[in-house]
Automatic annotation (TrEMBL):
Protein name: DNA topoisomerase (ATP-hydrolyzing)
Keyword set includes Nucleotide-binding: yes
Protein's organism: Molorchus minor
Keyword Isomerase: yes
Matches recorded under InterPro entries: DNA_Topoisomerase_II (IPR050634), Topo_IIA-like_dom_sf (IPR013760), Topo_IIA_A_a_sf (IPR013757), Topo_IIA_dom_A (IPR002205)
Gene3D superfamilies in alphabetical order: Topoisomerase, domain 3
Length: 77
């Protein structure tokens, strides 16, 4: 079924205007471009792990003073 057919079904049932339906459908167009490997549970778990690592890094930075961060940056140079 094409987008215009979906829109006409929504209109027929009184669920919205065709422009509203097209706008809502377009919001999810990016999903069509995703590779299948991005939709696996392993990928989800990997992303959750990365999130936890970044949250830990954030908490570490929050505990440091600006001068501590500055000194660490100077040490790297």
């Amino acid at each position: 079924m094409k987008l215009t057919q979906h829109a006409s079904v929504f209109n027929h049932k009184g669920l919205g205007s065709s422009s509203f339906t097209r706008t809502q459908v377009k919001k999810f167009d990016y999903l069509l471009g995703l590779s299948m490997w991005m939709l696996t549970e392993e990928r989800k778990n990997e992303l959750l792990k990365q999130k936890n690592v970044k949250l830990t890094e954030l908490e570490t930075l929050k505990r440091k003073s600006p001068s501590d961060i500055w000194r660490e940056d100077l040490d790297v140079l």
